[in-house]
Amino acid sequence: MPLAFSTLGCPGDSLEQVVELAQKSGATGVELRAAAGEFVYPGMNAAQRSDVAQALASAGLAVVTLASYVSVCAPPASAYDDGAGDGAADAHADQGANDPVLAELLAAVELAADLSVGNASGPAQVRVFPGAGIEPCALGEDPSAEMLAADKLGASRLNAAAERARERGVVILLETHDSHPRGGDIVRILSHVAADAPVQVIWDLMHPWRHDEEPARTAELLADSLAYAQYKDGVRNPGTNTVTLTLPGQGELPLREMQRLVGGISANHGIEDPWVSLEWERAWHPHLPPLAEALESLKAVLA
Question: For the whole model, what pTM was predicted?
């Protein structure tokens, strides 16, 4: 069971602290959260990128993905500029000149490629969100015209970034999240993405489940596009689709069943032992136990 974790679970920790935690917990991969105040952030210069990549490779840690905050379905006016356009993608800046979201996506592709130098476990990968800024439709409900337009906008950006992603050896990973929490929502976007585009999916196990999509159905929908799954646990708050987070094994998610479903998809793609990556949301919920404790709980559940 190749174990990984997102640095979302240890906000503000240094690179050295993350390496130490990984070695103590037995993790061999990390999802690097790209955000202000972290050791990985948009706008890093070339030397900084190289230093991080070398340190992780020397420690035997794979960069499972660069966890960006690019929202590919966001209306252009809602895009933000936090330095993501720093020189890394100048050669392709003209592609995003009229679309800040596309510019941000292209910059994230460059950052993912640079940080993943030395990866022995596979290609560089960058996580993106749908992020349309509208509420998801209910299960079984026809999507609104606004949602359908968001699907096409997100796909158009993924298609526009595909060439550069291929050039840099990067796979773009669209996560089940926010406006598109279910497998059924994600496949609407993917239906507009070119078949040869390097675009796959992260199955955040929490979000389809809390929006009433059965795990077996999510697995069926994502069978052709799944890269790996993010693990977490929680208890559904009665009468809502919100969740109170718990340590793995103390909530209501059928984690072992989900692991079996993910394993079946991976095996069909020739991957016998897929990543088990814990996304522990301590950055957003600082009252949660430390990441090290959550990792031990996850290992106990899935052992």
Answer: 0.94
